[in-house]
Amino acid sequence: MTAAPLVRTDPAAVAGTPPGGRRGRRFDGPARTAVGFALGAALLFAVAPLALSDFRLSLLAKYLCVAMVGVGIGIAWGRGGMLTLGQGVFFGLGGYAMAMHLKLADAGPGELPDFMQLYGQLDELPLWWRPFASPWIALPATVLLPMVVAFGLGSLVFRRRVRGAYFAILSQALAAAMVILLVGQQGTTGGTNGLTDIQGFFGYDLDDPVNQRMVYFIIAASLLALLALARQLFRSRYGELLVAVRDGEERVRFLGYDPAGVKLVGYVIAAGMAGLAGALFVPAVGIISPALIGIVPSIEFVIGVAVGGRATLLGPVLGAVAVAWARTALSERFPGTWTYLQGLLFVLVVAFLPGGLASLWVLARQRRSDPAGARWWRRSRPVEPAENRTEVSAA
Amino acid sequence: MTVLFGQLFTGISIGAVLLLIALGLALTFGQMNVINMAHGEFIMAGAYTTYVLQQTVTAAGWSLLVALPVAFAVAGTMGVLLEVLLIRRLYARPLDTLLVTWGVSLMLQQLARDVFGSPNVQTRAPALLTGNVSLPGGLTVANNRLFILALALAAVLALTLALRLTPLGRRIRAVVQNRDLAAVSGIPTARVDRTTFFIGSGLAGVAGVALTLLGPIGPTMGTNLIIDAFLVVVVGGIGQLKGSVIVAFALGVLQATGEYLTTLSVAKVIVFVAIVAFLQWRPQGLFTLRTRSLA
Amino acid sequence: MSQFRGRRILAGAMTLIAAAALAGCGSKTSDEKSTAGVSADVSGDTVKVGLLNSLSGTMAISEVTVRDSIMLAVEEINAGGGVLGKKIVPVGEDGGSDWPTFAEKAEKLISQDRVAAVFGCWTSASRKAVKPVFEKNKALLFYPVQYEGLEQSPYIFYTGATTNQQIVPGLDYLKAQGKKSVYLVGSDYVFPRTANKIIKAYAAANGMTVLGEDYAPLGSTEFGTIVNKVRSSKADAVFNTLNGDSNVAFFKEYTSAGLTAASMPVVSVSIAEEEVKGIGTQYLKDQLTAWNYYQTTPGAANQKFVAAYKAKYGADKPTSDPMEAAYVAVHLWKSMVEKAGTFEVEKVRTASGGITYDAPEGLVTVDGPTQHIAKTARIGKVGGDGLITEVWNSGKPITPDPYLKSYPWASGLS
């Protein structure tokens, strides 16, 4: 209830300047973006595959999937102010839809997936599995299913003005409920094991490193596409409306808009992105299980975004990759004590750098133009240039 | 019939546990808007306090009694430390408190693992609390459950009286209802915040002592409880204790009924669905604090 | 205009990327699988082995001591000159109680550290997650925990009990004690559900009745309802397949409901000395457990193991079945490698059949075809001192039968 006006003073929320806000600096927006995308593509498609071993590249593929969820959270939370702690649900829906199809494809027509024969004692495929045998249903379902669920939930919840901490905890409970539901139906969902041992991806053998690389390329391309989509969204009239709803829902309502509808769109898009990420995670890692969609992974998705910079375009991606990479690197280096370091990282970044790592960039810039900003580390929060504020609320 | 009454009592005792772990949250989350994910680790601290005390005070009954105030102080102090070092900076960003305290809870869990070892530790319950009371009709009521019910109600009563009658309680309520007005009226809001946090976290410690009678004492014992506790406060309505009390018992009975009629897993899902449905009806929770603030 | 240009560059880049990705397609699923795996790095005078256990998260409760026990075995072997003259270098990784992390770390140990074998995993879910990784890379995993059977991977050695070495003897014992009805309580995951399926088939064929079957979500600590149901069922015994923390809550509830080992005994298959310590003998006294090893198991090998473990980790630290199975796994691997004369996985596998080891639990033999080990089943009773003493054993090692093929009543199970 009091969350919304408080967020308005939240510097982090505005630290990510909308792309429009920086016009007239060195580059103009579109050219800069094109260069940025080209650089990103070069990094993902040329540098990474050449520099990394097969194993590290497969890890990067996994991180990029997490980053795709982050792009969605950046829209819903960074731009829309909806702290969604249940993205694991949508990630899981996408992942399970894909994995169900791949398991059926592995088993061959008319056969049951291996785990069903073991635990299910089933004679035939359950009804709700059947549509997933067809790639024409399963593939769109990976994105549409999460979107439909998000639409259903969102239209209930936003309409009734459940928001702030209420929304966060409700979405978290949703993740918990989904896990319990999946675990309880072992015969048809694989229970805690989840769906594992996925052999092929549309006919291609996933054990082959060449095919793993192909999966990586698909993931990297999807991430870039999502970023392009997010960027268009940020620059659109809708994007500005979304920020306006975040900063003052009542004001937007008084202006004649429907904030619930605006939020719903953002939430549904974020869900779709998480679904796609989940779907691509499956061929990259070869497993989807309740452990990937519960409360803990859902919070970790959000943490990555917070560390990177929630309201920026690239922040969520960089943050998600950085946190996932740090987790791997720290746990390899310090298997016994890495959780301290991970916890410390979250605490320090979120508490003392509310704009995330992306704000370091903004701060560095500010320091160049404003000598007083040179002691930025002394301040607990970055000061936002006034011009950006007006840009945002002038929507 | 026996089973039915047994289940009713089970539901009430589930409610009592929920209430005990949610009471501290009702203060820190309900009154201060801080989403403290480390609350579960404060419960853990209370449980480990009982364990440590039993190493010196060997009589189980006495050590449990001594543990109640000591755990309150230990967990409360941890809470104040957390408030002073981190949360103080985050009052303007309530959702960020969730992420920061999540990091803190990770570290506290690892700390517990390093100090006490990763396996669970055991405490002894006094003989009085391991038995049960037989009622007519073959019904039995476990003593430890009765103790926890009494403890939860006592804690609610003490807290309500403190908030209603003491000057400190008045200040806390003033800050909750209108922080700015309280500040200009000369109430030291920062100090009130710290005290509120001390009490809220201390109650988690007390819950931890009580939980040693029921469940495991280990590094991850807090994580299982925290979501349920938050749901109680959310459904009960922020800023009010009575909402949390009613909702804790209602959810307890609902869960016990669901568990009996279906399975434990399905019951849990039923509870979640009921909560979502309830928030459709009353999005601000059972009781709302009336304020003039928009939003 | 410039916005247009940006988009066109983007579209061009995307097309190139798609083309590049499609051009690089590898083998199809229908192709013959390649036979090359990753070979271990044995070039120096050391050999690496991987240790994969959860050091953080909910499973750390159980898995940390397994890690300790593996380390003890590694040190003993190194003190004795190593394996094939090479000292073992353990590479530890934290599975973090998260199944996909197990898969990631397994891949890292195999392809980056190039270990000769990996010891670890606890939950069935973690084993199922890493199984494809080991099969793909043709690397070895030694899995040290009793499990639900129905599995046989060529690249996994199972040194814990399968169902016919733990659950079936447990049921035989109950039957011999004249128990006619049981109530099944378990955590909601693979092992208890599969175990209970077996128990129900056994009961049907042996004139026992199953009065109820209840599952608690993993990590659940609220057992009021289940204990209420168990109590009113008036069963002769309870068969408990709960996991980890839930056991603590279950037994505390069980005791305060007035149920005791005398009025309604509980046979547990996941409570070892370590868990007894975490629950308290106050709640567990005289309850039954089914395992293959106890700290009190007689024999010189066990005395040596217990003494060495306590010397290294502290006198108050108990030893338990999974720890022993992990310890045995390292020694069995050493014997296999020495018999094969090489660290090469396929040769080690071929050499494995018939290898025996004088383990703390008694003589164990590797069963070549199933890659499980033959071991003696032991039913124990929890004593007031927190240790478990044996009340019955199978007399001789039981040949592993993960699919229960030799039991006619189990024919419908797999």
UniProtKB/TrEMBL annotation, chain A:
Region entry Disordered, spans: 1-25
Keyword Transmembrane helix appears in the UniProt entry: yes
Tell me where it resides.
Cell membrane
> What is this protein's record name?
Urea ABC transporter membrane protein
Q: Which domain of life is it from?
A: Bacteria
Instruction: Extract the signal peptide range.
Output: none
Membrane topology category: Multi-pass membrane protein
One Gene Ontology cellular component term attached to this UniProt record is: plasma membrane
Tell me the CDD domains matching this sequence: TM_PBP1_LivM_like
Q: Which UniProt keywords are listed?
A: Cell membrane, Membrane, Transmembrane, Transmembrane helix
Show the stretches that span the lipid bilayer: 34-52, 59-77, 136-158, 165-184, 214-234, 254-274, 280-299, 311-328, 340-363
Query: In Gene Ontology terms, what is one molecular function of this protein?
Result: branched-chain amino acid transmembrane transporter activity
TrEMBL record, chain B:
Q: Which Gene Ontology molecular function entries are recorded, alphabetically?
A: transmembrane transporter activity
The record's principal subcellular location, in a coarse class, is: membrane
Which terms in the GO cellular component ontology are assigned?
Answer: plasma membrane
One Gene Ontology term from the biological process aspect of the record: amino acid transport
Q: Which domain of life is it from?
A: Bacteria
Q: Which residues cross the membrane?
A: 6-27, 59-82, 146-163, 197-217, 229-254, 261-281
Task: Write down a Pfam family by its short name.
Answer: BPD_transp_2
Q: What is this protein called?
A: Urea ABC transporter membrane protein
Query: What's the source species for this entry?
Result: Micromonospora matsumotoense
TrEMBL record, chain C:
Name listed for the protein in its UniProt record: Urea-binding protein
CDD domains membership: PBP1_FmdD-like (cd06355)
**Entry keyword annotation includes Signal:** yes
Signal sequence residues: 1-23
Please give the InterPro entries that the UniProt record associates with this protein: ABC_urea-bd_UrtA (IPR017777), Peripla_BP_I (IPR028082)
The yes or no answer to whether the keyword Signal is present is yes
Task: Report the domain of life of the source organism.
Answer: Bacteria
Sorted alphabetically, the keyword list is:
Signal
Organism equals Micromonospora matsumotoense
PROSITE patterns linked to this entry: PROKAR_LIPOPROTEIN
